[in-house]
Design a protein that fits this description.
With 104 residues, this protein is an alpha+beta fold. The chain has three helices and six strands; from the N terminus they run βαααβββββ.
Length: 104
């Protein structure tokens, strides 16, 4: 697992298929949607699950989110990397880029 430094968070962003109703309904119907710009489309998603929180996130106030929370973050703020163990695309973002926490 990747450990965030300082005031950064590790987020597993949702894919476009997970957040877009049209893609989701097409997939449920068995249709395959060709996505030639898959990486670029997925980068436009601004929701994800917090996997890790750096040691100095929100130093002067109560934390806005915790590990496991679903958050909305500034659209093009994460630095995307591939986890060497799982090969999943993860985002590293600053604590100030967390815009909202989605309560379920």
């Amino acid at each position: 697992m990747i450990k965030p430094c300082g005031h950064r968070l590790i987020v597993k962003p949702f894919t476009l298929v997970q957040v877009d109703d049209v893609y989701a309904s097409a997939k449920r119907m068995g249709l395959e949607v060709v996505r030639p710009n898959e990486k670029r489309e997925d980068a436009s998603v601004d929701k994800g699950i917090v996997l890790a929180v750096g040691p100095t996130c929100w130093p002067d106030q109560e934390p806005w989110c915790k590990v496991g929370d679903t958050i909305i973050f500034a659209k093009f703020s994460p630095k995307f990397i591939d986890d060497p163990e799982t090969k999943e695309s993860l985002g590293i973002l600053n604590d100030e880029d967390v815009v909202a926490v989605l309560e379920e």
